[in-house]
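Model: Ready when you are.
Researcher: Fold this.
Model:
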Amino acid sequence: MAASSTPTAAAAGTITIGGDLTVNRLGFGAMRITGRGIWGAPPDVDAAKAVLRRAIELDVNFIDTADSYGPEVSENLIAEALSPYPDDLVIATKGGLERPGPGRWPANGRPDHLKEACDGSLRRLRLEQIPLYQFHRPDPSVPFGESIGALLELQREGKIRHIGLSNVTAQQLREAQRLTPIASVQNRYNLADRGSDPVLAVCEQEELAFLPWAPIQDHESHSVVRDVAARHGATVHQVLLAWLLARSPAMLPIPGTGSVAHLEENLAAAGLQLSGDEVQSLTNTT
């Protein structure tokens, strides 16, 4: 099927997170509905809300955000645009970073910070429980187990349903799994950067969702991608997203944008069917 047929996110099939949250396998990353540099409000708040509403219209039922996006801006906009939420919508957010200024993202994995961050996300998102709460990045100044322990406490208190990790190694994932069940991992992954293949392999083995961030970056130099796109009458971005979907059943891409047109382009990738040879040729691209 050509990408120009504009299918919805439902065409990507489904994936189950944590054993009980089934979502369409093409979600939306809400980082870029904020201001320039992921700081402050977007230049057009109504346009940002329109993107969120259009995503729901196109069968997106998984939205990923974080308290650090803005900071706080993304979560607030999601609630303003979409609350009360559709019954099938899963909102995932993250905690564990601070934003003292534009371009600054220091880690803070202290248990007290994570608990305060979670409470803030619950309030801004207008949720009684966060379906998937992800530790944004390990903090080298805090024992990893202490940070995970804070998330486990939040889960026991009913504030979060499932625990996810972000920006972790396979070793850190295994360490966390020894402490508590993990539902997902969100790491940088795209055609040009597959450094997280070992983590993806664990996710496949353990039936965890793998959320690739920066899924359509670093593509400009790949002539193979352009050739495949031309063959299908698709865009390069659509090919890159279709490759991710074909790469692994654990993959849950979450491309983000502040533009309705770009959102529609991205979601059309759900209906782009690559041949086995195309997937292999893309995979072999370095």
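Researcher: Now this one.
Model:
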Amino acid sequence: MDGSGVNGEINALVVGMIGMFFLTLIIILFVVIYQRKLLKQERKHKQAEEDHQLELLQATLESQEKERDRIGRELHDGVGVLLTTARMYLQHWSEESTGEQGEVGKKIDAMLGETIESVRGVSSNLRPVVLENLGLAEAVSDLIRKVEDASSVNIQFDCSYKHPLSQKDELSIYRVVQELLTNGLRHSGASKIDLHINSLLHLFSLTYQDNGKGISKEVTEIKGLGLKNMESRINALKGKWMLKSPPEGGVLINIQIER
């Protein structure tokens, strides 16, 4: 075989190798592009599912709040008014009664008074009128006063609330604070609670710390104490939260919501 034949075979081999290289390269690029497309679609579906779950969560919480508001109004405007009216009639009857009947009337009047206060307390818990009228800072301050009056716990509240949230988000944060204080009183055995609220232009933060039992139990048990409801509300606000037990004991919870 002459030199030209050999060169021709070499050239054909080189061309074939180059062709195979480009074909392999094209196949690799196709696979990479296809995988990226699949990943993009998967992320899109995952985001759509997360958005759907978030919408369901927000709808559930909104439905719960509407039901709470309805029951709170019925207690205040219905049961509360009826009890107050009945007490007025009883007081009028007691004024005209003497002896044993008068004493019985006074006892019933005292019982009705306690019942009316209980109904008002439940109504206020279900439907925080202070929050509607005066906003989050005043509502939390009012809640803290009530907790301190009903217990021996000392609560330090520091609030910098120059950039208010929407009324809907304020209600969610108020419920979170209710849950935190309830857990602090009923389950941790805390005698001191520090609560800080800071509202910046692009970030809302809430920090809770107590000197109670801490979080030595498993996380599943802790969530069973009501923190699962708090977590749902924070998720609905697209916020983040951290729970830990500091070296000095107790519980530290930090919540951040980007705005």
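Researcher: Key takeaway?
Model: Residues 1-127 form one domain.
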